[in-house]
Specification:
With 310 residues, the chain is α+β, with helices and mostly antiparallel strands. The protein has one domain: Glutamine Phosphoribosylpyrophosphate, subunit 1, domain 1, CATH 3.60.20.30. It is built from nine helices and 13 strands. The strands form two sheets. Strands 4-3-2-6-5-1-11-12-13 form a nine-stranded mixed beta sheet. A hairpin with a 4-residue loop joins strand 9 and strand 10 (263-267). Helix 7 (213-222) packs across helix 8. The chain is globular, with a radius of gyration of 18 Å. The chain starts with a strand and ends with a helix. It binds aspartic acid (ASP). Aspartic acid is lined by residues 149-151, 169, 171-172, 181-183, 202-205, 208.
């Protein structure tokens, strides 16, 4: 059977290179995407996920993460969790539970502690400096508080046909403490059904969750749409609805894959990078853009890859 993996943003590249090895080797998509997301969480240069992420307005790193198994529909999710090294592994652990599968704040931290997960201060000096800079820019009215975000969302298909999806993020820069975005919300930030396919979203959670976009993409694939058509149809529809109902739509970008390893991407912004590896394709970084209601994409150059993290 064929295998494949697709992830949001250039930051997914190194993790997807590891996931590729595992999937080629016949390992489970759950293991492959966990390894990939952990690599992003552990890297302080990837500034919107895990260690060294983007602080909230109180200069704390509050993280959201989720995991879904497309064979069993098991879901595990954490929201606003502080001071734990790999939120994605805590989310995966929660998939074992029948109840209490989505924990937030102190409850999530108590669970992680009980399960033996490692406590770590996730705030780096660099994050603190960025927070200070942003704080003064906001005072000077130069920037909107929420400029700065990005989620790593990775979809995997293994040789046994199991599909899984995982997301991890620090959410919006300067968010209010306790704010949770779309990333840990089933159907919005992620969805997976091995009989059909899986999807993940990134962008402004407050808008993404208005369209339950990951579920919608999987539903469209079930109707027979190719992942590319499903992704574009879902993003365009939500984008237009938001504009007509509210006058504006913020950033929405998605990646998806069906259970044959065919993939799709869509965005409503100018530059959305993503990474794909399949049986037929080495790990490749693409840059997608949106114009006239269409998403198009090109391969990123090595120079671009070397000089960008998102
Ligand atoms: N969707 C994330 C959130 O709203 C951020 C992002 O993906 O850019 O928390």
């Amino acid at each position: 059977m064929s295998w494949g993996v697709i992830g949001t943003w250039r930051m997914a590249l190194e993790g997807i290179m590891e996931a590729e090895k595992l999937l080629k080797d016949g390992k489970s998509s759950l293991d492959a995407i966990e390894v990939a997301v952990k690599m992003v969480e552990d890297c302080p240069e990837y500034r919107s996920v895990g260690y060294g992420g983007l602080p909230n307005r109180d200069c704390e790193i509050e993280l959201d993460a989720a995991f879904m198994d497309g064979d069993t529909f098991s879901i595990g999710a954490v929201g606003s969790i502080k001071d734990f090294k790999n939120p994605i592994s805590i989310a995966r652990k929660l998939m074992d539970e029948r109840y209490n599968i989505f924990l937030v704040g102190q409850g999530a931290e108590r669970y992680a502690h009980t399960m033996g997960f490692q406590r770590t201060n996730m705030l780096t000096d660099y994050s603190k400096e960025e927070w200070k800079k942003k704080k003064s820019e906001i005072k000077l009215d130069k920037l909107k508080a929420y400029d700065g975000h990005d989620t790593v969302g990775i979809v995997g298909l293994d040789r046994n046909g199991k599909m899984a999806v995982a997301t991890s993020t620090s959410g919006l820069f300067m968010k209010r403490s306790g704010r949770i975005g779309d990333s840990p919300l089933s159907g919005s930030g992620f969805y997976a059904d091995s009989e059909i396919g899986a999807a993940s979203a990134t962008g402004v959670g407050e808008d993404i969750m208005k369209g339950c976009i990951s579920y919608e993409i999987v539903r469209l694939m079930e109707e027979g749409l190719h992942p590319q058509e499903a992704a574009e149809k879902a993003v365009n529809k939500l984008n237009q609805k938001l504009i007509s109902k509210r006058g504006e739509a913020k950033d929405i970008s998605v990646v998806c894959m069906n259970n044959k390893g065919e993939w799709g991407v869509a965005t409503n912004i100018n530059k959305f990078s993503f990474v794909v590896a399949t049986e037929a394709e080495e790990p490749t970084v693409y840059i997608a853009s949106f114009s006239d209601g269409k998403t198009t994409y090109v391969k990123a150059t090595q120079e671009w890859i070397d000089t960008h993290t998102e």
